Amino acid sequence: MALSRDEITEKVREALVDALGVDEDEVTLEARIGGDLGAESIDYLDIVFRLEKAFNIKIPRGDLFPDNILSSDEFVQDGKLTEKGLAELKARLPYADLSQFEQNPNVQDIADLFTVEMIVGYVESKLGGEEG
Amino acid sequence: MRWIWIDRFVEFDRGRRAVALKCVSLAEEHLHDHVPGFPVHPPTLMIEGMAQTAGVLVGDVFDFKEKVILAKVTRATFHRHVRPGDRLRFEAEVQGEVRHEGAAITGTITSNGDLVAEIELMFAHLDRSREPVEPGEGNFVFNEDFIRLLRMRQLRGLAANGPAPSA
After folding, report:
1. Are A85 and A68 in contact, with CB atoms under 8 Å apart?
2. CATH hierarchy code of domain B8-152
3. Which chain A residue is nearest to residue B125, measuring alpha carbons?
């Protein structure tokens, strides 16, 4: 049976609490994984493992947290995402809210896009995609 | 003293699970220095023992060619003291599978059937995405001494593909 968005959110919250050692009430939908919840690089892998287990899904490398966009000159120039880079990011993160980021696409602000809500959206699309 | 905090592997299921033993002896210096007058095996060294058990488990998957680094102690809960004469049993299990980026491990430590500790660890493969891995060269984690040690312990097949020890 398909999980409701609330059920997905609850499981995502649980994964983040366990991976990051944060309190449950800190894990709001708006919370940024890095900026607010203090995730460091290895934590992203931990989160991926926990989501895979919690939802019985496979998350390929770079699928949830695309890190390879930043290493390409085509996508990044002078510390900002190019139009092409922005299009790529949109394609890779269709569930993320890029409206604010688009106005000033500083590479260093990309991490702020990774919110709890984005992860919930990712899992939702992943589960939906696998069922359909 | 050598930085080895497990004595022997007793089970090894490649890529999945490993069990190692450690006998705690009053002959070990650290038991006298940690809490003077009350010899106990420090919890930090139990984390190290679990990291060594699990590190070999993870390293074996790519034939000890990766630099397997303990990246995070996700959780460590200790339930009792470990005293001289105790024999610790480290059971490490891979969560899901060992990936190219690293692995997550769940472990328990028991002594004579009693739960001593529950430990979760994360391992990362150092430089996996940035440099080609050259087999047998410059791996400061699984170095020649380590491979020799594995062979000495008769972990059959475990080091079969590792670099040959120098004469």
Report:
1. no
2. 3.10.129.10
3. A42
